C-alpha cells in the first residue's frame, strides 16, 4: 500500500492557555481532495497555517511523503511542493494577470527578478503563466491589470499563481469567501477540474461546495478531529450533526 501524501500525527498548538489544535491526527492520500470543516473557532485555519509552515506546532508531527516537516520553514515546504493558495502572495494590482503569474514561475525556476523585466517578456515565464491562466479560466484576461479584476477573478488569479508553483499539495483556505452564488459555482467547477491532478486540502464554510467536491471530510471542534470519512458517512454521523451540521441538515435529510 502506498504511503499517504500527508500524515498529521498527534498535533497540538497552544496560544498561551488556549489549545487551538488538540491531539489532531489525519491523513491525506495522493490525489485526494480532503475537506476540513467545523464551526468558527474550530482551529481550521490554524491547522492550515501549521501545514504550510506559517505556524510551528507545539508538539506532534507533520509528514509529507514520509519526510517529517514539523520543524521546517515555510520556504522549505514550498520547495517540497506544499503551496498555500490565496495567502501565499499579495497580488501586484498594477501588473497584468499574466505578469503576476509569470513572476511566480520566475520565482519557482529561481531566476533573478531584474526588476520584473524578464518575467514580462521572456517566454520561459510567460508560456507556463498563460497555461496556468487557461487552467483557471482567465486566459482571456491575461493582459488586464489584476486590480481591475472582479473579486472572483482575483481569487482565480491567486489559484493560477499557486498552480504556477507546481504544487504537490494545495492548501486552500476558504477559496469561496466573499463570493456570490455564480462566482462560487465557477470555483466549484474549477476545483472539480483539478481533482485527481493535485492533492488538495480544502477549508470551506460552503457545505454545498464541500459535499460536491470532497473525497473525504474531517470535522474539527475545538481543535480536535471528531470524525473523518467519506461525505455520506459524515452527513450521517450523529456527533457531527450535533456539533456542526445542526438540526436543519438532519431535517432536510428526513424530509
What does this structure look like?
The protein has ten helices and ten strands. The chain has 255 residues and is of the alpha/beta class. A hairpin with a 2-residue loop joins strand 1 and strand 2 (18-28). The model is unreliable at 247-255 (pLDDT under 50).
Mean pLDDT: 89
CATH topology of the largest domain, which one? Rossmann fold
Describe the global form: globular
CATH class of the largest domain: Alpha Beta
The computed structural class is alpha/beta
As a percent range, the share of helical residues equals: 40-55%
Can you say what the CATH homologous superfamily of the largest domain is? P-loop containing nucleotide triphosphate hydrolases
Helix and strand run: EEEHEEHEHHHHEHEHEEHH
Main beta sheet, described?
6 strands, mixed
Rg calculated over all Cα atoms:
19 Å
Number of domains: 2
Poorly predicted ranges: 247-255
Termini Cα gap: 41 Å
CATH architecture of the largest domain, by name, is 3-Layer(aba) Sandwich
Strand order of the largest sheet: 6-7-8-3-9-10
Amino acid at each position: 500500500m502506498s504511503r499517504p501524501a500527508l500524515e498529521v500525527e498527534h498535533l497540538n498548538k497552544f496560544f498561551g492557555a488556549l489549545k487551538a489544535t488538540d491531539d489532531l491526527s489525519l491523513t491525506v492520500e495522493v490525489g485526494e481532495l480532503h475537506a476540513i470543516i467545523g464551526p468558527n473557532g474550530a482551529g481550521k485555519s490554524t491547522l492550515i497555517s501549521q501545514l504550510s509552515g506559517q505556524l510551528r506546532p507545539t508538539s506532534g508531527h507533520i509528514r509529507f511523503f514520509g519526510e517529517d516537516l514539523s520543524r521546517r520553514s515555510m520556504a522549505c515546504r514550498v520547495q517540497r511542493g506544499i503551496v498555500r493558495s490565496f495567502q501565499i502572495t499579495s497580488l501586484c494590482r498594477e501588473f497584468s494577470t499574466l505578469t503576476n503569474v509569470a513572476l511566480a514561475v520566475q520565482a519557482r525556476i529561481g531566476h533573478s527578478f531584474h526588476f520584473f523585466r524578464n518575467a514580462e517578456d521572456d517566454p520561459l515565464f510567460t508560456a507556463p503563466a498563460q497555461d496556468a491562466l487557461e487552467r483557471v479560466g482567465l486566459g482571456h484576461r491575461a493582459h488586464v491589470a489584476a486590480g481591475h479584476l472582479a473579486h472572483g477573478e482575483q481569487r482565480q488569479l491567486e489559484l493560477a499563481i499557486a498552480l504556477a508553483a507546481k504544487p504537490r499539495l494545495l492548501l486552500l483556505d476558504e477559496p469561496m469567501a466573499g463570493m456570490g452564488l455564480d462566482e462560487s459555482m465557477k470555483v466549484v467547477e474549477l476545483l472539480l477540474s483539478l481533482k485527481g491532478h493535485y492533492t488538495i486540502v480544502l477549508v470551506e464554510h460552503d457545505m454545498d461546495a464541500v459535499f460536491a467536491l470532497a473525497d473525504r471530510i474531517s470535522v474539527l471542534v475545538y481543535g480536535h478531529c471528531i470524525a473523518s470519512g467519506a461525505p455520506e458517512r459524515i452527513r450521517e454521523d450523529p456527533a457531527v450533526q450535533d456539533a456542526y451540521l445542526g438540526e436543519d441538515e438532519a431535517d432536510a435529510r428526513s424530509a
